[in-house]
Amino acid sequence: xxxxxxxxxxxxxxxxxxxxxxxxxxxxxxxxxxxxxxxxxxxxxxxxxxxxxxxxxxxxxxxxxxxxxxxxxxxxxxxxxxxxxxxxxxxxxxxxxxxxxxxxxxxxxxxxxxxxxxxxxxxxxxxxxxxxxxxxxxxxxxxxxxxxxxxxxxxxxxxxxxxxxxxxxxxxxxxxxxxxxxxxxxxxxxxxxxxxxxxxxxxxxxxxxxxxxxxxxxxxxxxxxxxxxxxxxxxxxxxxxxxxxxxxxxxxxxxxxxxxxxxxxxxxxxxxxxxxxxxxxxxxxxxxxxxxxxxxxxxxxxxxxxxxxxxxxxxxxxxxxxxxxxxxxxxxxxxxxxxxxxxxxxxxxxxxxxxxxxxxxxxxxxxxxxxxxxxxxxxxxxxxxxxxxxxxxxxxxxxxxxxxxxxxxxxxxxxxxxxxxxxxxxxxxxxxxxxxxxxxxxxxxxxxxxxxxxxxxxxxxxxxxxxxxxxxxxxxxxxxxxxxxxxxxxxxxxxxxxxxxxxxxxxxxxxxxxxxxxxxxxxxxxxxxxxxxxxxxxxxxxxxxxxxxxxxxxxxxxxxxxxxxxxxxxxxxxxxxxxxxxxxxxxxxxxxxxxxxxxxxxxxxxxxxxxxxxxxxxxxxxxxxxxxxxxxxxxxxxxxxxxxxxxxxxxxxxxxxxxxxxxxxxxxxxxxxxxxxxxxxxxxxxxxxxxxxxxxxxxxxxxxxxxxxxxxxxxxxxxxxxxxxxxxxxxxxxxxxxxxxxxxxxxxxxxxxxxxx
Length: 757
Hints:
Radius of gyration: 32 Å
Shape: elongated
Strand order of the largest sheet: 1-2
Largest sheet: 2 strands, antiparallel
Helix content: 55-70%
Number of helices: 41
Number of strands: 2
Distance between the termini: 68 Å
């Protein structure tokens, strides 16, 4: 078969310049619009430079969608590329057209078979390679860039394009190629066809079920173009809009949705980029209008997310009652939130445990995100991290980058509490760019609030305040209580760590009083230990005791070691004199079973202050060195400064780097010295724990103190220090042969391979 090459008509693809277009440099665009511009033009700076001045005022503000078709994005760039393509020989252009049709806008991987079936000679591709337009390889034709591929397709006449699609459809007859064959059949159609529209609709459903939303969008959109029935066309457009949103094409999704009346998509759009309170109502309305229970359940799950974002958790009861009225099983996270709002914490824990347990590998990423949210509410941050990580991986595998960014919103909490601040901040920054590029401005606001909290932990006041201000501006305009509350908490923690206790207490009291759209019950609960600390420092304990009582009731219900540890710390802060010490010890015992290492360090810092005031100086010094080591590992400079100030109050300064090696026997406690010597022999933390009948976390705690007091950073330094006589050792001190200091039964067990701490 020979594909004809008809004379190319005059290029009239450039749309008229809009009257309200405003010249605006790309750097001046809002971050979200700038990311979407780069994504829609395939990261090509030439197209960016051409598109940005053509945007209207509403488009530059993010109120209207960006153009979706290439001819509307960069007409001058395409005109120049088409002129370059037209200069090539006819046979070369024929092959380039066939390759482009095989790749754009749907990749079908049938070029080589089509060349064979059409008995085409591939030697003319040498002219394209000489011109630098494309080159041939083992897998087919590789274009110079995306815009050259689009130009090669657009240069041909409609008749030539139809012939290319017909040839590709003819060779796609193998198993699993039905959907791609249907695409080419639809692309080759001359006009409306109910039969072809039905075939494409079925193919789109199949692609959607197989987790290929980009292909499903193209098929559904083409089916709508060919559908002669306006009602069926509207349904197809709605599905195409939803598919476009899932595969990260927000502007195309909004343009498709504008051609139909779909309350479900309106609700999704409001949830991700509009007013979250309006999203809740729209999603409930759409759930009532759905004929199939599965669709209703999905919409109710989205309504639950809207309630979480707004902070109006009381509306979860409304959604829960609607689910029962519709006869569908409410999502586990919805039932749990409804129970928690009513104060039925034990029931909420049971429901959350069931939801959090569904975090196995693979699966629906939305369900995995809900599992992560449930685990966070239970204080199980290990499971939360696992669920959200698997949700992001599953979303990427399914081609839904928007959902991957949503998973990172909640992964940030788990990483923050676990102390993985640096890696987590880098991951959140990446997710922020992805949220902007996929049109999820509300998710971007939530991620920026997480970055504000990371900055607060680091003591970066400028970054924390800048990010919090941006969060508040967006959150208040869109009714987002969750990010607004998180940003307020970040500012309060910044004040607390800097010793501005009245300011911290005032912020946290305001956070407790904020209603939906401005605050969040879950954040208020998480921030309670910080409020108690600030209130005690300012002498206002009445409200702090009431806040602690509710926090303790929740911690007892969810049975989280970390939450119980923080509750014990609150009790210590509220207790008089020496009575506080037993509560601090209980808190540290609970911390040893949890994972919130940063909060454990803060508990040690507070404990050390209480010990110093009671003149128990040796233990206070031990706790401060351990806390200092933890703060330095987290990069929490302001908290580390507090620990150093406490050490100075004890008359002890932390050993500065490069000041020489201290005598271990002089600066370590007896327990630390024993642990240090065993570690120097090569025993792992677990082996040391087994020998001393302690937990690995306790050994980890002791080694942190050892490293801080000796001012070292690795086990190699520890071996060097303990393996050689220390300069200036006390007279009569025992030799430093590590095995000589161990009881006889322990000798000979230190031959394990060295492990970095």
